[in-house]
Amino acid sequence: MKSRYLRGxxxxxxxxxxxxxxxxxxxxxxxxxxxxxxxAESEWRTANTASxxxxxxxxxxxLRFSDAQQKQANQISAxxxxxxxxxxxxxxxxxxxxxxxxxxxxAKAAHIPVVLTDRAVDVSDPSLYVTLIGSxxxxxxxxxxxxxxxxxxxxxxxVDIVELEGTVGSxxxxxxxxxxxxxxxxxxxxxxxxxxxxxxxRAGGKEVMEAFLKAEGKRINVVFxxxxxxxxxxxxxxxxxxxxxGRDIKVISMDGVKxxxxxxxxxKLNVTVxxxxxxxxxxxxxxxxxxxxxxxxxxxxxxxxxxxxxxxAAAFPTRKY
Length: 321
Ligand code: GZL
Hints:
Elements (H helix, E strand, L loop, with lengths): L1 H20 L10 E6 L5 H17 L2 E6 L4 H13 L4 E4 L8 H9 L4 E4 L13 E4 L2 H14 L8 E7 L5 H14 L5 E8 L4 H15 L5 E4 L2 H13 L9 E6 L2 H8 L5 E4 L5 H12 L7 E3 L4 E3 L3 H4 L6
Parallel strand pairs: 1-2, 1-3, 3-4, 4-5, 5-11, 6-7, 6-8, 8-9, 9-10
Antiparallel strand pairs: 10-12
Helix pairs in contact: 2-10, 3-4, 5-6, 7-8
């Protein structure tokens, strides 16, 4: 009896040892990547998710994907689940900047490297993640302001702006606002008279713009929207108020999704500052580098352009998202 028990225990230990030797979770030897996505709040996010899934497939990576429905608690739970699954790498797009230290310390304690995509986190210990792959949102905000400065008729009349902010506490909302206001600082003619979050959604943009129009009416000269989805919602509100978006009220936006190009071709959106969501290939390259023990830069910035209304028709056919 005793020898049979010992034999069983020995086999079990051997099995566990094999699992341990094979490294992390992938039973078929593939690299396992756990990815926690913000949600599905915008056209940009849809394109970002598609890029990550297709790039993982092309790279032969076993992708464990979780949609947090824009809730930080769901992202934290997903990261804990990836730790329990002993994935090789964890990547995520943090819905907000703060509140990540505890769970990232758990990943570090489990010796699982973490890659940030799209958005930054505010942590005191830089070793809690390997690299951030994404846009320079402050520069995107500056680009939007520079377009406005270069495309407002000369004169000294007031240019009154309303601002549709992204998700409260998110890196793009914080930094796009910072860049926009910074670039306008030396130009007192330009004033942001109201600013409120529309949470990066069409419905949010429309609802906030309706409130702005009720409060300020024809005083509004410009809408600055932190993403195209909110701009498209604002365009609907402007039209329902009997005004002409793109003409009576200039509309400045960010992302460069298909809906923005369609609005520009219809003369309703004046410019979109591109924010490239196609981060999948760069993420998979970073995962491969980590697995190979190769160093990575702390910041991998994606290249982006500015598309004014006049350029929309020519650019639209080759847009990838
Ligand atoms: C920007 C990204 C933002 C987009 C929005 O990198 O985090 O979130 O601008 C999206 O469209 O919802």
